[in-house]
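Quick one:
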Amino acid sequence: MKKRTQIVLATAASILSLVGMVFSVGALLSLRSVDQLHHLLSYDYLSFVDGQTAGGLATDFFTGIALVLIGSILFTKTQRAGDVGKAVASFLLLFIAFTLIYACLNPRIGVRPY
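Output:
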């Protein structure tokens, strides 16, 4: 790959990862209790209304995770950050898989919104 292409790719990956980290960390900082963290990780705050009652940024948590995942996948194409990008992408894919499994094992069918 040309050096210019690698610079553009690394810049795009950095911007996506940084924006994703801001969304994810902002969502975690807006939580006030462990119960809200449980609701966040079990996909209860994907509704805009539920997210606003929890603190506003709660709906942006998985959007941020997705942006960091895209950024880390782009980092795998660069020479220097390739191994770190693979590790971060693997961790995030496992995190999403485990939260999806947990959400499927604990459905909210018939439960009122918070």
